[in-house]
Amino acid sequence: MKRQPIRHPLAPLFWRAVDSISTSLVPDTVRGYRAATRHFLSYLGARHPEVNALEQLRRDPHVLGWLSDLRARNPPLVLAAYVNKVIRLRRIFEELAWLHQSADLMHVLGREDSPRTEKCLPRALTPEQDQLIQQELSRRNEVASNVMLLLRHTGLRIGECADLSWECLRSTGPDQWAIHVPLGKMKTERMVPIDSFVCEIVRRLQSFRLLDPLQADGRLLARPHGKEPLVRELRRRLREIVAAAGIHTRIVPHQFRHTYATEMLRAGVTFPSLMKLLGHSSADMTMRYLRITVQDLQREFQLARTQPRHLTPQPKSASTSARPDLPGFIEALQTAQHVLEMYRRTLPEDTACRHLKRLANRLIKIVSEARSL
Q: Per-residue pLDDT tens for 187-214?
């Protein structure tokens, strides 16, 4: 449904400012700027019809009145939506101030008018919830249940899953597979390594897609009415699945992503690798996903004390003459590793030290290859 144009004397100036801001923004963000502009001009025309020029705009009563109107909406706006509208209108006023050389417009809406958003606390599923939901998902064999299992074991966002291509399954080596995740929320793409269980889930979804009467469009999931209706339907189906599992707490698909992140960290995945798996560019964002308990800290502490990863273990015995067999060869390599590491630690961080570090890494690979013989 096409919206009626805003008939306000200031509308052309505001739309020009929005167009100027929007040159480097994605379509969803542009729609947010237009929505904030439409709401403000609608309020201004209804409550202050005498305002028809930028010079007449004042913080009080025009902008403060609009803020009060936002807070009084019924049903009330969620905090994030309220903050977004305020931030976008403030950015528009800044653009208008620059375009029309009016310093007064820079101060009609300030940073203090935007309340702080609530911090996203970790929402990983409890072990009991995770077990019950996975049992219920495994019991069913339908599109929605397989999609939820895919989210749980890959950490994908639900929007990314809806955008997966038919050929998202990629071979990365002998018996090694990964899912290619297209451009998503952060406008980046990535490869998520998976095991045979997840491979089977993807193949089941491909089978369901072949049975769907909708014409093939290159996507893994059929979306007859578009992406948003598909996502809403998957969310609705998850609510049914959670209720069938006997869980009365509200569960949303994004909690699978939190659970996956916590599981990967506990399994030994390093923090930089976890950022890559989740598609994050900020370590702060990754930290919000993790649910670290006292037991996790205790386990990591004991492991660091007994098996520090930054130290090369000292060989059990450093014999003067190596035995002419494979165990003797490996023992000699380990001795060389230890001597090299101890010597490297006596040097300052310079070019020579970096070269020795690369040699130490090569020795680690050689020892690993020798052990596989």
A: 678 899 999 999 999 999 999 999 888 8
- Which parts of the chain are beta strand (E)? 169-173, 176-181, 190-194
Q: In which band, very low, low, confident or very high, does the pLDDT at 120 lie, cut at 50, 70 and 90?
A: low
Separation in Å, CA 62 to CA 101, 152, 296, 321 = 20, 48, 53, 88
Domain 127-294 class, CATH top level: mainly alpha
3-state secondary structure of 82: helix
Which residues, at least 6 apart from 93, have a Cβ–Cβ distance to it below 8 Å? 105, 106, 108, 109
pLDDT at 332: 83
- Residue 169: name the closest of 220, 230, 208, 234 by CA: 220
**What average pLDDT does this structure show over 118-123?**
60
d(CA 68, CA 169): 51
* Cβ neighbours, 10 Å, residue 315: 17
Q: Which long-range contacts (C-beta less than 8 Å, at least 24 apart) are formed by 281-287?
A: 281/186, 281/188, 286/261
Q: In whole angstroms, give the CA distance from residue 4 to residue 20.
A: 22
Q: Which two tokens stand for residue 159?
A: 């929007």
Whether pLDDT at 230 is above 80:
yes
Q: What is the CA radius of gyration of the chain?
A: 29
Sheet holding 169-173, edge to edge: 169-173, 176-181, 190-194
- Dmax over CA atoms of the chain, in Å, equals 98
The pLDDT tens digits for 336-364 are 877 777 777 677 767 777 777 778 777 77
- Residue that is written with structure tokens 């001795």 in the block: 335
User: pLDDT per residue over 268-307, tens digit each?
Assistant: 888 888 888 888 887 877 877 776 666 666 766 676 666 6
Ordered by start, the domain boundaries in the chain are 11-113, 127-294, 326-371
Q: Which residues contact 230 (CB under 8 A, 6 or more apart)?
A: 162, 221, 222, 223
Residue type, 288: R
Please give the Cα distance from 59 to 300 (Å, whole number): 54
Residue 190: CA count within 13 A, CB half-sphere: 23
